Amino acid sequence: MSPLPPGAYRPSTDRWGTFARLAKGLPEGSIAVVDRTVAKLHPTLLPTLASRNPRAIIQLTGGESAKTFTALEKVLASSLALPRSGTLLAVGGGTIGDVSTVAAHVLKRGVRLVQVPTTLLAAVDSSVGGKGAVDMTVRGRVVKNPAGVFHYADVGWVCPEFFDTLSDAQRREGALEAWKMVVSLDAPLFRRYVRKPPAMEKLVKDARAIKERVCAEDPYEQAGLRRVLNFGHTFGHVLESVSHFKLAHGDGVGLGMLLALDVGRHLGVTPEPVAAEVEAALAQGPGVLGRERAAALLRRAPMKDIRALLTADKKAGAKGELRMVLLTGIGTTEVRDVTEPEWRALWPAWTKGVRP
Q1: What structural domains and CATH numbers belong to the chain?
Q2: I want to staple 89 with a disulfide (CB 3.0 to 4.6 A). Which of 32, 224, 244, 332 is the partner?
Q3: What residue stretch is flagged as signal peptide (predicted)?
Q4: Structure confidence by residue, pLDDT tens digits, 275-331
């Protein structure tokens, strides 16, 4: 049997340890894409990489500015000497991982990728599952992830030392994304989390295992099984965009989950007790931001911009309906096409910061 081509689906392989120890296994002549802020916070990072004689170390500023065609071209231009058998190492949060995944996919028609998530959000979510994307601008608003690829990492390095420098807000973001998976996919684990919130290492391991199970069944999103991972993302991405990305992704997903609970209740898909229990758990556990934050953002966004963002969303249906993941119970979901009149009925409450 021929070996798997670079980027093809393979079960997630995680290696835990210090970056210095894991970097000893990095092939010489690799390319490293590094978040500039992470390099400043961890002064031994760049010397450790330099000791492996890389072809290039490319520093980018993390955030949505890293997910542009300009940043992608910078990575590719610095990586032209990398052979197809070479390795591209991504060291940073989700945005660095995203652009690196796209670069690994198109560079020489596919090179080996190693993901090193340095944020809790990237560790629990984006560094697993093979997806990478860049953003585009539609009517002056940035649309998240319309141009992307599937390119699975050969291995993920999980280095807890990087999490030591995270802010409380960054920890909250990662926890919200992890709870998203638990709420929508694992009822027994949700009950345990409600009784006793997990330590960070357990949160990361649980979330990565849950996502891997989903991706193993639908590695390229052809069967629709991975749609469940989009719970909270439809309106979460809208909130991020209208905030000009001052609202971080994890917080956007947290607020997006609250709005998805509202849509589910409105359509009779999500039982009222389930919606109430989940909203309380998200507030008490990871600490979802209050509804007033979503209201402030939605109030200042013209409706034509909201429509444009929702229409451009890659999860929109052929006729413009929103293909949303809604809870039917703790750990169970249903994908429902939501029309504009259905979600617009909730708009008055959303812009007042109250539950409809």
Answers
A1: 14-165 (3.40.50.1970), 172-350 (1.20.1090.10)
A2: 32
A3: none
A4: 999 999 999 999 999 999 999 999 999 999 998 888 876 556 656 689 999 999 999
